[in-house]
Amino acid sequence: MSKKVESNIKAYSNNFTTMTPGPFALALRKNLIWQFIRFIVINIKMIIVVNKSH
Q1: In this structure, are residues 28 and 36 in contact, taking their beta carbons and an 8 Å threshold?
Q2: Has residue 1 been placed in a domain?
Q3: Please, are residues 23 and 29 in contact by the beta-carbon 8 Å criterion?
Q4: Which of 21, 29, 30, 38 could be stapled to 25 by a disulfide with Cβ–Cβ 3.0 to 4.6 Å?
Q5: How far apart are CA 44 and CA 30, in angstroms?
Q6: How far apart are the C-alpha atoms of 31 and 25, rounded to whole Å?
Q7: Which residue segment(s) compose the domain that 52 sits in?
Q8: pLDDT digit string, tens, across residues 1-47
Q9: Total domains, the chain
Q10: With contact defined as beta carbons under 8 Å apart, do 21 and 29 qualify?
Q11: What is the CA radius of gyration of the chain?
């Protein structure tokens, strides 16, 4: 029965309440410089967490 319900849901329609990224968020996702900065920040956070546990 759930298959029938799922077939009626259309993504990005007015009844679909999930947020979709705007143009700025999409631009950041494609920007390699921003991705590198985020990579460095996440790695620093991981190093801090690992150092706290040791």
Answers
A1: no
A2: no
A3: no
A4: 21
A5: 22
A6: 10
A7: 21-54
A8: 555 555 666 666 666 667 788 899 999 999 999 999 999 999 999 99
A9: 1
A10: yes
A11: 19
